[in-house]
Input
Amino acid sequence: MTTVLRVVFDASARDADLTAVAATERLSHLGAEATDVDVDGTTCSAYGLFDAEPDDALETARNAFADDPAAYSARRLPIARRFDLGDLRRRPVTLGGVEILAPGPPPAGCGASRLVIEQGGAFGVGLHPTTAMMLVLAAEGGPPDTVLDVGTGTGILALAALVRGAHRAVGTDIAPAARVCARGNAARNGLDRLVVRETIPAGERFDLVLANVRAAAIVALMPALDATLDDRGRLLVSGIRFYEHGPVEAAAAHRGLSGVGRVLHDGWWCLEFAR
Ligand SMILES: C[S@@+](CC[C@H](N)C(=O)[O-])C[C@H]1O[C@@H](n2cnc3c(N)ncnc32)[C@H](O)[C@@H]1O
Output
């Protein structure tokens, strides 16, 4: 199993940056994936993703920092949920109540709420943790009326919302190939209620705003995402590595948005915000 540890240092006793660098090196030597640091003035933290049971990971970290127990403490970050993603090549995957299929003859026993996704040159067939979390969390709270899907890729998130009963969806993507792919998937599924564009429409509000792009892009896009969010709407963002949530949460807070949910899966966060 995967365990995420956040190792926190008392920065008052020593140089915080140096301590954080030393700690990430130690975590890397212990086999932790993708270590990174943040420094907030009084403490600094290193994050490590361990392929181990929580107790084993904690003991390993404790032993590694045994030379300075007063300065270091390790804490496990919660992984709220796990998904069985299955394998699209062998069988459809049901995520958020929608069966996702690869093109081809549908396997026997498929339900009515199904979506055929051709990957083309775009991202998003449902197997990546960031997409899977978005599909599952977007399905909570009932079907929205209108959906904006920024970084739509194959169109999978917007199309799943339409399958679940949304009346209108707009998908945007900066990549021309993704826009072609998303339009193709909309036609393939008879869902021409998906409008695919390059940019976020100005002056329009949506009940559900989705953005599965990288953390830095979410931070940059936050004013535009906020401007399109209906007063009672939900904003779901994904594509955030396990150590990258701080700047995204700060950008949302800066716009007056509150964090109302967060899920960590396979080292990626999906964060939910509302007014
Ligand atoms: C990780 S894929 C997500 C695809 C799909 N929505 C999913 O959840 O599987 C990110 C997509 O966002 C697009 N993208 C990246 N930065 C963007 C931005 N600033 N505005 C719009 N699209 C962006 C990329 O071209 C890519 O197609």
Summary: Residues 16-29 form the longest helix (14 residues). Helices lie at 16-29, 54-64, 129-138, 156-163, 176-188, 215-228, 245-254. Residues 80-85 have pLDDT under 50 and may be disordered.
